[in-house]
Amino acid sequence: MDAPASAAFPASSLGTIAKLPSSPMARRALADIGRIAIAPGAGAAFADFVAVCTEDRLRRDCAGVDEWSGRAGYRRGRAVHVGNGRRAWQSFSAVWPVVMFFASNIFMTFAWYGHLKHKGTALFIAIVVSWAIAFFEYCLAVPANRIGSVVYSTAQLKTMQEVITLLVFSGFSVFWLGETLTWNHVIGFALIAIGASFIFRG
To answer: From which residue to which does the signal peptide run (predicted)?
Structure first.
């Protein structure tokens, strides 16, 4: 009578099976081993089975694992790439609206107040010229709000626009209209800016 299967199971085969990956192919190989190990007369054929059949299954299974690892690595790399792209877009969406609001407010300030330096011009002409200037304001302000909405809330966008308007208007009133800013103006604008900062909290 043949020796029990467990006695005929070589130690090297134990090491080979221990290295089998936990995948469907490996589980099928272990099932085959189990069926042969409990069959009558399996002791003599067991070592040959482990050396040939299991090794072949292991090789094919490892190839499958390598292929899976490659796909997983590709997915991880793609996820990292997408994550980096998303962070870059968020950084863009946080900075560029500020720049575009500054530019749009220059156009807006000239459209609203630029004609005050030329009060002798007919009102109809002032309206048409101001409307034409305001067109470029909209070309900048509308995209700024659309891009900024990725990062900021609508209230934050509006608050940002108003604070920038005060800054642009301060320079405009001094350099274009020749008016003088007093400490009352500075304190008033500062208080508005402090109040606006609460919109960005939380």
So the answer is: none
Query: Would you list the DSSP string of 89-150?
Result: HHHHHHHHHHHHHHHHHHHHHHHHHGGGG-TTS-HHHHHHHHHHHHHHHHHHHHHHHHHHTT
Q: Within 10 A of 3 (CB to CB), how many other CB atoms are there?
A: 12
Contacts of 100 (CB under 8 A, 6+ apart): 140, 141, 143, 144, 147
Cα–Cα distance, 129 to 21 (Å, whole number):
76
Question: What pLDDT score does 110 carry?
Answer: 95
Counting every residue written for the chain, the total comes to 202
Q: Comparing C-alpha atoms, which of 154, 189, 194 is closest to residue 168?
A: 189
Contact 41, 35 (CB under 8 A): no
- At 149, phi and psi to the nearest 5? -65, -15
Token pair listed for 80? 């990292």
Q: List, for residues 40-60, the tens digit of each pLDDT value.
A: 554 555 555 555 555 555 555
Q: Is 50 exceeded by the pLDDT of residue 184?
A: yes
This prediction has a pTM of: 0.54
Helix (H, G, I), strand (E, B) or coil at 49: helix
- Give the type of residue at 118: H
